[in-house]
Design goal:
This protein is an alpha/beta fold and 463 residues long. The chain has helices at residues 4-13, 23-34, 60-63, 126-129, 140-151, 164-175, 191-208, 314-328, 399-407; strands at 15-19, 40-45, 82-85, 89-93, 98-101, 106-108, 111-114, 118-120, 134-135, 157-160, 180-184, 212-215, 219-224, 230-235, 240-242, 245-248, 252-254, 266-267, 270-272, 278-280, 286-292, 297-301, 307-309, 343-348, 351-357, 364-371, 376-383, 386-393, 428-429, 444-447, 455-458. The protein folds into 3 domains: 4-54 and 73-119 and 253-334, FAD/NAD(P)-binding domain, CATH 3.50.50.60; 126-250, FAD/NAD(P)-binding domain (3-Layer(bba) Sandwich); 350-429, Enolase-like, domain 1, CATH 3.30.390. Helices cover 21% and strands 30% of the residues. The strands form 8 sheets. The chain has a 6-stranded mixed beta sheet with strand order 3-2-1-7-21-20, covered by helices on one side. Keywords: FAD, Flavoprotein, Oxidoreductase.
Length: 463
Amino acid sequence: MTSERSAETFRHDGRIVIVGASLAGLRAAEALRDEGFTGSLTLVGDEAREPYDRPPLSKQVLTGWVPADCTALPRRREIGAEWVLGVPASALDLAGKRVELADGREIPFDRLLIATGVRARLWADESEAALDGVFVVRTCDDSGRLWERLAAGPDRVLVIGAGFAGSEIASVCRERDIPVTVAEVAEAPLVGALGSMIGSIAANLQRAHGVDLRCGVKVTRLEGDERGRVCRAHFSDGGTVDADVVVVALGGVRNTEWLRNSGLAAGVWGVACDSGCRAFDVNGLVTDDVFVAGDVARCPHPVYEYRFLSLEHWANAVEQAQVAAHNMVSSPTDRWPHLSMPTFWSTQFGVNIKSVGVPVLSDEVVVTQGSVEEHRFVATYGYRGRVTAAVSFDNAKWLDHYRHLIETAAPFPPSGPTPDQPADMKPVPAHFPDPVIITHGATVMVTGYEPNERRVAFARPGG
């Protein structure tokens, strides 16, 4: 698309395919119609059901407040799309502009939006993962099955992983008065996302609500009984716990396997794109007709030194979908950058946790408002003397103030906006178990000794 005229023409007779029929895919489709796109629109999804909201699956559904099949995403408008559901994409022919499906069909496109998101990371041992009573929580069906098992009153639940999802599931168990053990390989819950200081607060919160929290240990084996039901877990420290329900909450795996050999810069960290959501190819060249949005996207952010960030946040998916949709049908001079500040929320053990910014891109943290003892405070993060993020426990009304500090590169530590600033306010190291540096998580390495030679090798985590 090289002119306003060609952009207008595409709005009426172009073919757009969206692979990924969840939050980002649906909101992008609606935004395309809002932008005046009247051409052909196809949504491809690997689940047979239409888009639904995922945050309630580890919260309201498991408590019984909302049935698992009542979490459909509200439709903002009619989109007049062809829905291809229950059939995953299997390959992308970039040169031929075709999406290949697992059932052998091919769907041609003029422009493509990749919004395939993430799936739950399964227990590594397939035979143990297949034991009756072992669950993950990612899909509507996952949540519905786990709710049925919790409603039956298990003797004990073991949650493997104390990130946000694992902590929310543990909270649900205690709310239902179900004994629960949480096993976390790190030193504390949430430490991978919020650092060790907030992690220690989260650990105290869990134990105060009766969670048997075991940190610094790894589950090495799940044991089943003669009926094929899970009954016991073995830990790396030699300990065991009897449990008739095990929830594996070890994070997500980005759905990029279908893009292998496609020529895009896609791998285990997601699909790299520019701030306008246009995908990069393996040589670092931006594509004109392939866009990315949602959990699967890796996008540079100017506030964080243009580092490529993969953000599994609800608000990020919605905002990025809007930007991608606009840019797909706009001329180059009218495109938008995706520059919104990341936000996140979680409710666990009666506490509402909200954040703004990217805490993991920090080296220090300080409590700037409220009381840690009362679990009502704001902690502010900094990197090299400037504010980079803030996290609130039951004190979210000031987060817009901290958003402004982040966006204006305000000095760290900042002054609190209210008189409840702790008297002994002193920054401490943020202590993340896997510090993020500029080269961390590189997707491709371009090799070659001649200017016209571009051999590409895909990097692996830690390699």
